[in-house]
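User: Fold this; tokens only.

Assistant: Input:
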Amino acid sequence: MADASSVCWRAEQICAHRGASAHYPENTAIAFDAAAHSGAGWIETDVQLLSDGELLIFHDETLGRTAAGSAPISSLSWSDVASLDIGSWKHQRFCSERPMTCMQLIQWQLDEQDRPGIIWEAKCPSDGVAATATAAALAERISAYSTHRCIVSSFDRTFLQAMRALLPQQPLALIAEVLPSDWLGFCEQYDIAGMHLDGEQLDECAAQSILECHRQLRCYTINTISLAEKLMQMGVEMVMTDRPGDFAVSRAR
């Protein structure tokens, strides 16, 4: 049972983590639809480069947890994954859910004016070549739609460096579990506007450091109202949650 909210949340403060993933299979159209219906202002999702240059909405590095198989995602093409059942692992009623491409999700957002913004989390293999290629592919797709509202984020610094060179005006965010000691130098050098940190580990000192340096602070993955309210008091501007429907969200944005 979710704890009760004592505030009315603004849509921009709530980001649905992989869609409304507590109740729907993550990173699927039905999860994104549910997130939009909840009033969340943003959706966080994962994007990976396939072997044929397509960008797949998918979290894990390999098949096996949410789809049958064991192959690394980077070794597969769109034709290999397009027909995969990525819903039944959650419940049999979701057996018709299929993977989406980056372009399909952008089009989903643009189909209706009030649909949430997208926070792309780029998943990259450990080599820099893959990170640079992923940045090039994502930059190409973002550039094709001038009205696409998004933030691009990653743990991978090589990816963020490449993305900054390709899209000088694109809002970027560095993801980490806790605030790295060298975070500010990297953010200043590559104009990284936001930090995405584990809200369970965030402390007042780290939050204050980020805010004093005029960077945006967002936290993952917050599934209780009490923790979300505590983080907001610390200056966090957005919480990413599997349970956007638990928040009493004002539809005004």
